[in-house]
User: Fold these one by one.
Assistant:
Number 1:
Amino acid sequence: MSTLEANAGHHHDEGSYFDGPPGMMARIWQWSTTVDHKKIGVMYLVAVLFMFFLGGMAAIGVRYELLDPIRTQTTEFVNAAGDIETVTVTTGESLKELMGGMFGEGVSGSQIYNRVFTLHGAIMVFMFIIPAIPAALGNFLLPIMLGAKDVAFPRLNLLSWYIYVVGCLFGVLSILLGGVDTGWTFYTPYSTTTDADHWRVVLMVMAAFILGFSSILTGLNFVVTVHKLRAPGMGWFDMPLMIWALYATAIIQVLATPVVGITLLLLIFERVMHIGIFDPSLGGDPVLYQHFFWFYSHPVVYVMILPGMGIISEVIAVNARKHIFGYRAIAFSSLGIAGVSFLVWGHHIFTAMGELAAILFSGLTFLVAIPTAIKMFNWVATLYKGSIVINTAMTYGLMFLFTFSIGGLTGLPLATLATDLHLHDSYYVVAHFHYTMMGGTVIAFMAGLHHWWPKMFGKMYSEKGAMLGAALVFIGFNLTFFTQFFLGTQGMPRRYANYVDEFQTLHQISSAGSLILLVGFLVHLFVFVQSLLSGDKAPANPWGGLTLEWETESPPIEHNFHKEPILKHGPYDFETTVPPHWDPKDYPLPENAGKH
Amino acid sequence: MTMIDTDTSGVPARILKSPMHWRNAKHQSHWRSGDEEFDAAKFGMWLFLSTEVLLFAGIFCGYAVFRMLYPEAWANGSHSLDWRMGAANTAILLFSSWTAANAVRLCQLDKQFWFKINILITILCAIAFVAIKFTFEYGIKLPEGKAPGTFFSYPYATDPHEPLWWSLYYIGTGIHAFHVIIGAFLFAFVLWRAHRYQAYGPTQYTLVENSALYWHIVDLIWIFLFPLLYLIH
């Protein structure tokens, strides 16, 4: 008897994954050597949120600079001695006045602005938004939703995290050395010639190259996990749609990232050894770089958005208490988006190709709208006659439908050749991109974070505080970016610190919006910290979800489930199933639940 | 897991009892069986190989574009390569692919001695390949000034775009040679574990098989690089 009790006490299965050995160093060692996908997911979450903070600070810097246009005016006047004297006055260098010392002597306000928006773009794209949902939430959820104990290759998973951290360190090092001004796209020949006597650009390109490896390994791990580790009874069409989305994402990560790997490697060789492949003076072709780059970087915007769409499918179905409308259509549209994503890279470089190619790429780009719209209509149809519960996750879910629709529809004029000629490289593109990436991915990320926070950390958060944050984010986001549609159509080009006076009011509204956005995220941060410190204990299934992660405790035990789960109902059979761990006090069930 | 009835009389008890020995190897706890773990590892390896193909696709694409634009430079460049060295390296890699495949089979049959010999031959082939590449190709071309990009200083070039050819030649073969070296280290690791623990046998040969798969893709990429670089007119 006593041995049995002793065994039970020490058995890993009993404690939550958060439990660890006593002592700070022991815990740090345990976390840094863990192969548990949940701990790795949490470590990713901490890392990406830190990068989000850095990238966000750069964004605030960009908006701060744009409060005033940078102007250099030269005036001539006759001085007291009767000679003609010229005086050059530069005004509006807000960032330089604030933090010019960080970038060294003799760097102009416009150069500082270039560096700050490059940092914003590079950090947000490579270090935040690509790993945010798949690597942080995906790592935590994918095995549990499949009913598995872990991902297929747990050690590889930990290696991905370390590679990610090393990549980020390269990026941060580049920033500390003064940053780069190439834009996050590293277009040649500028990226191979600018700042020539310094290693900053190489470091930043290396960062993106290294982060690519991390992304490939995560994708590879997820594809194999989905194929090989589904719970008994879980066929492909019994998988939650989040898994379908992560699966499509992982395929893109595996197939597109190696191309950017070789591209960035060539770019480093070009810059360091002048091999000439992208250098026209040696017969090379800078446009080839753009083709290579977008062959990766267009599919990768679907790496950013697809997992977000997976989250929205879960959040909307659970909180509408209704079977998701068009399950297969949503699943296949994820794969459809992944497939089409490889055929549309040319729409970034319409002006650098022949007419026929441009027309083809334009047509193919319109194809993306079809699977995206299929998802959108299915979500709306799911809401129809559902018993909708409004909580923070659902609020973000509905917000997604609104902002992502704007983001998606404003993409169509950019895919149209005639209008794109007018709009490309303008603030319209900036606004469109942010409505899809921020209004899409980040909003979905927030939805997912609130939906699964109780599961991940075993604590509830203040619904009121989170709702306040969500409201501020919504207002701030739309103020910041809706104004930019107007700026763009009126002719404000992207990546300029200078502009005509007519644009100032809109720029100032946009900057004010970004501050509200910042406050909104700080409110969320506060709510989350408060939840960790003093939140109520979360029940196993606070929202009434039917996917497998709600079957286990909050937070899950180390091996996820006490015994291997066997699938008894579909992920969205809300009309016919009593949710696991259901408590009548929490929420009512639909009429027929449990009577099938 | 079924125990394979093989002769263990000559194996010292120290090795037989080691947890690293293939008979004692256990699958990781999140798998239902060792077979599933093996299938997954192999599937993962195939996915990884597809990323390798895509990595080299960038180089082949650049090659195609510039060969179309500058056929003269490509012909000149190709003619100054020694096809005999390329052919020798092709033969070496093909042979080593055969020994790698042999090693997998011998491992499955628990013929430990010949398994290790085949791995060793594969490693030696890798070293020979890299040695030929560096001494008889790079080592001769570079001093002549046939170097990539702006380092190009060969005085008798007739086409202004020959530096570009050399850039692609060095990057393509260089990245390939890097893969050969990684493969050699992979096999060295396998050989060390096989020697030290008899870590691989009929029921436990995942790493052997995956290393061999990796080796075949390295071989296959060379099969494309060789004619494209050495045998064009």
Number 2:
Amino acid sequence: MVDVPYDATADIPLAEVPEVDLYHPRSWWTRYVFSQDAKVIAIQYSLTATGIGLVALVLSWLMRLQLGFPGTFSFIDANQYLQFITMHGMIMVIYLLTALFLGGFGNYLIPLMVGARDMVFPYVNMLSYWVYLLAVLVLASTFFVPGGPTGAGWTLYPPQAILSGTPGQDWGIILMLASLILFIIGFTMGGLNYVVTVLQARTRGMTLMRMPLTVWGIFTATIMALLAFPALFVASVMMLFDRLLGTSFFMPSLVEMGQQMKYGGGSPILFQHLFWFFGHPEVYIVALPAFGIVSDLISVHARKNIFGYRMMVWAIVAIGALSFVVWAHHMYVSGMHPKFGFFFATTTLIIAIPTAIKVYNWVLTLWRGDIHLTVPMLFALGFIITFVNGGLTGLFLGNVVVDVPLSDTMFVVAHFHMVMGVAPIMVVLGAIYHWYPKITGRMLNDVLGKFHFWVTFLGAYLIFFPMHYIGLLGVPRRYHDIGEAAFIPSSTHTLNAFISIMALIVGFAQMVFLFNLTWSYFKGRPSGGNPWRATSLEWQTPETPPGHGNWGKELPVVYRWAYDYSVPGAPQDFIPQNQPRATPVLQGAAP
Amino acid sequence: MAVAIILLLVAVGSVLFHIYSPWWWTPIATNWSYIDHTISITFWITGVVFFAVIAFMAYCVFRFHHKEGRQAHYNPENKKLEWWLSIGTAIGVAAMLAPGLFVWHQFVTVPADATEIEVMGQQWQWSFRLPGKDGRMGTTDVRYISPENPMGLNRDDPHGQDDVVIESGELHLPVGKPVKVLLRSVDVLHDFYVPEFRSKMDMVPGMVTYFWMTPIRTGTFDVLCAELCGAAHAQMRAKVIVQEESEYHTWLEQQKTFAELSGRAVTKATYRSGGK
């Protein structure tokens, strides 16, 4: 390596692009509503995502009430159940997690962490949010149109998605596809910003290999999203044409309810390839920002540099690249050519290696650390457990022949909830506890935070760990009622009821969290600028919360990597990235 | 301290749950016990890794949690350790992948003596077709489907005349004989799923998919649909009855062939057109 991250003797390279003047808001509207400040846009993204996320939470309660106590709630029928699972899945994966990690954390943290004043295209960044909001509103409107939202499952597989045997065939599916198209347009505007800002607007001295892993995670995920979302975009447009114009991109000749349809010649499997070419990278679009953020949480709160920083960066890049050649592991039993199984099982299991390296490095960062069991640290520990669990069950589903009995069962539901539901949300929550003081200038309440953590972590684990075994038993997913079958023992119903009760409890704990967010905004303990004594740039701003332009008169200059914690001989256990190297110079420490 | 204990309990609890869980795979009814063995290998390897990582983490929390005067060790990286861990992981992955691919090879290699049968899915019922005395099934097309010809058989194909057509009934199979199950759908995706068989495959309109198996024990098994197919997805059921060969033939004798069924249908059609 040319650039040793903590080599304090290296010259400080110049920033690649000189400073430009910012757009300065002139009124309340341009300051708080049509704002071009990435920090305001970040909060707008986060609040919108949380709002629609609460809808998804309520839907999950309704689903669990139906699964735990089938037949008890007359207001939930088979059609509605399918609409609930579809909307829950779509909201959680795209409108909540993607929007929150990239639009929320990306917008807030990228400029601050790389020492920029703002995103490089502030106006486009603002448009990105408003198009996203429109996408969310179109999505939410499907609850109120005739026929309701689509019940095609979040994968929207044709022909089912656009035929009359599926609820929401009138308006639901059309608006869903329109909303996805809008989301992708909005995301592309934001995504270009994140990538160009990281590449072009880093401050003096902030080399790529000095960036915090949070930025690496979001940066890589954004590049992936820019490459993956177009596949979903074209698939959505083509399906919209099939539905509205009678084209047959995904529609073969078929008979629906005894009627010969006019479709012919299309391929349902083509849609699955396009969908998963987007859908699998999407998993990592959610996971990589989480990987990055959790690395920083662990490092700050264990007062120790992240172990194996360079390996961590390369692992992020390797996972990002590999995730584009594994998509068909979602399609082992789709009827595609069976020989594909050899290739996709091999690539899928290879991804386990860089992923495992990341896990090892997280736990090795704890080794001989000074572990402060703060709320962000607790969430980071909760992330490691749920991610390891969900990652390992991925080795079952990725290994083609093992997937055959397990695919389309509750095992899959348990797996992906653990690995891309619970685990990233642990990181989201930990990250909110971590950066809330920077955003508001106040600390979140610690007692409520610990209550929130334990109920969420243990509750979610008790929901999804036993669920794997329902799937192992053979219970299929997307059944509103498993009904009678000889292979399902009655004890399964008891377990389902238990899971449903846990789901209600975990949901309730999120209300406590929302209360904490609101209450602490007004009454929380003032945090000061750097309550966690962290090294990265966002904690070194002249004001907290940071003002427009982030840095006052002078941009910070970076002299070191983001992980100088507990450096031997230093007066304190952290050295900020912008602290000149006058203080201790390490002799011979470079590897 | 308490945190470390809870983390460890999560790991121990998970292992105990796995051992004592009453929810486990159903007794197998086909030759695919290889799949079960591969799952067992995967459980062992992943179980050891899961326990080791969580236990190590719990130990770190116990041993290195913050105390007055504690200073973290400064240790940016350890190339050697990282390489060893990578190599160890690669070996573990290979130990799961190799048997997996080996069994997959068997899964996709249909034995030459397998009898072809057909399962057709439509919203929301199953139909079955068995080759007649000639051992071959006739061709089909969605465009031939009518109330009289629900499976869309080609009336002009001589191989199809003696095919046994079973509409929304039960599928019977002889024990011990390999079968290649051809899968077809006329409307949306379905998936012919019998948990005891372990093997399953989606049915896709516009194409014919398949899997093969050899039933190894007699019994009656539930057929479910495993690919979301619309409102009544959960109610799309049928039964497969695996029986001794002699019983199977007795049953087969009583079934109607396509010619027998469509003979009436043809008469009806003639009658109708003649009446106009």
